[in-house]
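SUBJECT: A protein chain and its fold
Encoding: whole-number codes for local backbone shapes
RECORD BEGINS BELOW THIS LINE
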Amino acid sequence: MTQRLTIEGDDNQRLIASIDAACDWMEQAYAAGSYSKITVLRQWSKHNPTISGKMARPSAYRWYLRRELLRLAKKGAQIVVTRAQPRVDLNSPGLLQTIDETNFDHTLKKAFLFGPERAELSIARLEHYTSTPVESFQRYVLLTNYQMHINAFCEMFPECHRPQRPDAQMPAYHQVAVDNSGISIVNIGVGPSNAKTLTDHIAVLRPDAMLMVGHCAGVRNHQEIGDFVLASGYMRDDHVLDQALPRAVPIAPSFLLNRYLAKILDTRRLPYRYGTVYTTANRNWELALQQALRDIKLSRSVAVDMESATVAANGFRYRIPCATLLCISDKPLHGSPKLPETAKSFYDKSKVQHLEIACAALDMARHEYPDGIPNSDLRAMDEPLLGGLEA
């Protein structure tokens, strides 16, 4: 059973209808128990004329398939959709061997970054952790570890989709918009392990951007509680991705996302500083100060947190533009540790403003780049993927 997509003149609506029909066909095949395979012949490519990939639960990222297949087809690519292997049994004893990524090269030439079995498991885990269907996830994702940011999000978007149960481990809320162009927020909890867990799985949905919205310790004299921090780079003392991505690999946030954040902060006349963010796995780093202080000084860090570098590193691995918007909640090196009364006062004053800045920056990205933030700087030298029209 095969579905073919071909360009017929310049009839854009007819082409869109063909792609929608192909997506319907893939969803029907999935419901009937099979994955689908997309094969793309790109006549213009000297090095990678044919790429292919297999899809699990295409409804989870239908917006992405529609967008990328349309871009390819409008350029003249021949696209063929066929039935692939039966869906994996997630209870199969051999599942983990099938999806083992220990020696997997994510820069291999292919149409989709993940195999269908890996996507299947990640989708199931996302729904378990967040207690929301993956179809509700939007293209722009905020990550936080504070319930107050969730509360502020619900105040901003009272009609947002909410978790289906109250005890979700990483509850997600979604401001749903056409073509999944809205904003999702996930409370990932505290620490780099949680940050890696969530971003490992959400990468399957191919979001256009991930933005860490959190608090940090300021470490410079001329910083005040309430000042903002935009990361120019990261000191990775989290260690959870050391095997997958050596610490020698430079990780930088998205220039465009930082530009939008800075513009919003400038417009509001809010104090902020660019600089290296030191991400640690040790919440009590102040109790092992000698080594931490050495790393902070060598890296010229301006802030300390527990998630930003992890999110950015996984964004780099999975080709997702990322950035960091931190707000200084304490200055432990200057006699202002995080204590209950001062923390509560700071939280009450900052939570809504913090979310407003993040959402305004993502809104700028959505309007300037409606087809996705450019991410060629995150791709390997010969890596096409669906959206890599030039490779």
Notes: The longest helix spans residues 340-368. Residues 131-377 form a domain with the Rossmann fold fold (CATH 3.40.50.1580). The chain has two domains: 2-119, 131-377.
